[in-house]
């Protein structure tokens, strides 16, 4: 059984955190268990959509090739697309750069009944400046305070926030980058910056370790998910999501007495 606390951040040093755990079961068994959980997750998400009461924000962060797109594709395959929205934050547009860095993010947060996935997020505005030193360190620290306050406000307003860092090893990233280069069907996933950013591997590890530790709270937690094994990654994320969303106790809405009486009256005219 997967326990979410096992994946809480316990150290700023990500080198001490496993990117892949020893599996006691086969890939076939992992996939089988995942399919069962995925079906349950889809049902819970549909109840959330139908009830239109809860708001869910899922944040996916990770280095290039860590599996953010794959997570979206597989973990949420059984969900109702009407109640699911995926937002991928690219480089800010000219209009977005005229506003504060959280302006474009706040507009994309979920409404009642909606589950929103941030495929990369406002955390890019903390990590990238830390790695490339594009702004002073004090300003980054201020942004960390901003993000904590921003997420705290969202939680207070009824948003359930779950944050996942897909933790991949340097060796596994090299294998996946090579596959993208050598396989023509995956060329569309590759950018030259994937290679140049790899030079800053240690800096990214340090930056993520610090930011995750500084923004982890029990009401808006981070989960560091070993991502070298895709099947294990999917199972861990879907299991944590299912456990958390079931605690919201979503239920199908029912007609109140007056509405039901009107319906019965109108049925006579069918």
The total of beta strands comes to 5
Task: Work out the oligomeric state of the chains in this entry.
Answer: single chain
- Structural class comes to alpha/beta
* β-sheet strand percentage: 5-15%
Q: Biggest sheet, open or closed, and with what strands and sense?
A: 5 strands, parallel
What does this structure look like?
The protein has helices at residues 27-51, 68-75, 94-97, 103-106, 124-132, 137-156, 170-182, 192-198, 201-214, 230-246, 257-267, and strands spanning 55-62, 84-88, 115-119, 159-167, 222-226. It starts with 26 loop residues before the first helix and ends with a helix. Helix 2 packs across helix 10 (230-246). By secondary structure, it is α/β, with parallel strands linked by helices. The protein has a five-stranded parallel sheet, sandwiched between helices.
What is the gist of this entry?
By secondary structure, the chain is of the alpha/beta class. It has 11 helices and 5 strands; from the N terminus they run αβαβααβααβαααβαα. The chain is globular and about 70 Å long.
């Amino acid at each position: 059984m997967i326990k979410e606390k096992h994946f809480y951040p316990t150290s700023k040093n990500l080198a001490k955190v496993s990117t892949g755990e020893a599996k006691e079961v086969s890939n076939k068994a992992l996939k089988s268990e995942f399919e069962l959980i995925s079906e349950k997750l889809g049902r819970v998400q549909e109840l959330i959509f139908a009830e239109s009461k809860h708001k869910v924000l899922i944040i996916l962060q990770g280095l290039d090739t860590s599996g953010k797109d794959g997570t979206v594709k597989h973990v949420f395959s059984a969900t109702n697309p009407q109640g699911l929205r995926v937002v991928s934050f690219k480089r800010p547009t000219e209009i977005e750069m005229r506003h504060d860095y959280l302006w474009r993010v706040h507009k994309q947060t979920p409404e009642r009944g909606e589950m929103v996935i941030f495929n990369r997020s406002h955390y890019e505005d903390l990590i990238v400046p830390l790695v490339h030193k594009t702004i002073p360190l004090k300003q980054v620290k201020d942004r960390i305070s901003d993000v904590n306050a921003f997420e705290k406000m969202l939680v207070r307003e009824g948003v359930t926030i779950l944050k996942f860092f897909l933790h991949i090893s340097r060796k596994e990233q090299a294998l996946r980058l090579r596959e993208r280069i050598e396989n023509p069907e995956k060329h569309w996933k590759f950018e030259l910056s994937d290679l140049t950013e790899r030079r800053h591997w240690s800096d990214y590890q340090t930056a993520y370790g610090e930011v995750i530790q500084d923004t982890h709270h029990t009401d808006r937690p981070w989960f560091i998910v070993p991502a070298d094994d895709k099947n294990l990654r999917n199972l861990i994320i879907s299991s944590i999501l299912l456990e958390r969303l079931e605690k919201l106790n979503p239920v199908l809405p029912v007609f109140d007495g007056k509405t039901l009486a009107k319906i019965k009256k109108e049925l006579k005219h069918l």
